Amino acid sequence: PNQDGKNEVFKAVTRGVKIYNLMVFNRWGIKVFETNDTNLGWDGNCKDLPCDEEEYVWRIEVSSVGGIHKIITGNVLLYR
After folding, report:
1. Which long-range contacts does 26-32 make (Cβ < 8 Å, 24+ apart)?
2. Residue 1: predicted pLDDT
3. pLDDT tens-place string over residues 2-48
4. Nearest residue to 62 via CA among 53, 52, 54, 72
5. Cα–Cα distance for residue pair 38/13, rounded to 1 Å
6. Buried b (16+ CB within 10 A) or exposed e, 39-48
7. Are strands 55-64 and 17-25 parallel, antiparallel or unpaired?
8. Which residues contact 31 (CB under 8 A, 6 or more apart)?
9. How far apart are alpha carbons 24 and 42 in whole angstroms?
10. Within 10 Å of residue 62's Cβ, how many Cβ atoms?
11. Which residues contact 9 (CB under 8 A, 6 or more apart)?
12. pTM: predicted TM-score of the whole model, two decimal places
């Protein structure tokens, strides 16, 4: 996120989701972002302050309208 209008937020692209939770953690395991809204994404800030440029861990817990439940994790590199 650098205010150029491209890749300003990190979020999942979803369809047919009933329950959704996205969390982002820093390298010490401290949660820097959480949302249950599929339209919201992480903008690289924590408590309105810019996070350091480094690798973060994300975790998504999702349930579909069809009853399928998944927990997916990965890494994202914050680069401004």
Report:
1. 26/51, 26/52, 26/54, 26/56, 27/54, 27/55, 27/56, 27/57, 32/56
2. 84
3. 888 888 999 999 999 999 999 999 999 999 999 999 999 999 999 99
4. 72
5. 8
6. eebbebebee
7. antiparallel
8. 23, 24, 25
9. 8
10. 19
11. 1, 40, 41, 42, 43
12. 0.91
User: What's the token pair of residue 37?
Assistant: 């809204």
From residue 72, alpha-carbon distances to 9, 20, 33, 51 in Å are 18, 11, 16, 23
Whether the CB-CB separation of 10 and 24 falls below 8 Å is answered with yes
- Quote the strand ranges of 1-80, DSSP E: 17-25, 31-35, 45-46, 49-50, 55-64, 69-77
Could you tell me the end-to-end alpha-carbon distance of the chain, in angstroms, rounded to an integer? 5
